[in-house]
Amino acid sequence: MWRHAAARRSAQIRRLLSTSAPSSGAGSAVRGPCIVHKRGTDILHDPWYNKDTAFPLTERDRLGLRGLLPPRVMSFEQQYERFINSYHSLEHNTQGEPDSVVSLAKWRILNRLHDRNETLYYRVLIDNIKDFAPIIYTPTVGLVCENYSGLFRRPRGMYFSAKDKGEMMSMIYNWPAEKVDMIVVTDGSRILGLGDLGVQGIGIPIGKLDVYVAAAGINPQKVLPIMLDVGTNNEELLEDKLYLGLRQPRLEGEEYLAVVDEFMEAVHARWPKAIVQFEDFQMKWAFETLQRYRSRFCMFNDDVQGTAGVALAGLLGAVRAQGRPLADFTKQKIVVVGAGRIQCWDRCA
Fold it and tell me: What is 147-169 written as a DSSP string?
């Protein structure tokens, strides 16, 4: 079942990529030419257009790439196989290492591919989503967020901070995509069960959107991860010399809401139909912002509405599995089982 589902997703994402990405070599589903306005090293440094050694000689001539790449032309499929082999070699070479070390090593090799060649990266995710989802999202994303300032190599997404107040309406146009369909935003105040991780929480929107692309077929050129940096109350981060966020306590009250208000107005002004998903906000702000924006903007809070929707679907599915009518739902006995996360939620909220 996973293999058939992955094949369908792979075909769907290749259709999406075909409208904007260059040909991916032999066997690609891309049809028709793609107009590229970059040349030479600018193409090789752009992960969306870069195909590494898969550029055929004719494209190397047209795009000013001859001499900038090794002479051998490798097909997209050969690149795919090479990466999978490298990944399996990493698994073999890290046997016996702590789980955290192995997980971060796997995340790094995927992240390097993402930085270099997005078309190959998403093909790898789509075809292997069952294996790679725990690396690009939970549980590994928690480790990534805890260490994000040290792991940072290349910016991804956008950062709006309390220092940008009054500038967000112009800042939103710095994002190069003309159209954005899906935004995931966090303020880093309640990352999973880890608490306040400040700007390092950007790993959550990045990972979640990668899952949406690979598992739901959303166009990767039309998603945007965003961090709202309003400070942090995590003393360890404030004292960390590598920390990349604002070194100040979190804004509260009207000061906090003023920053979020300006951000939402800016997003709505440029992309009025974009879905804005609030992710991993403290409970007090999760409910406050949901009530504040739900009737004005196309938004939802995943921790409030998303979690509730999944839980309800599970309960309704249990009734259906018993062959009983939904009218019997109120007669069910429901047991909620956890492993200590309630304490984390209470502490983080």
Answer: THHHH--S--SEEEEGGGTTTHH
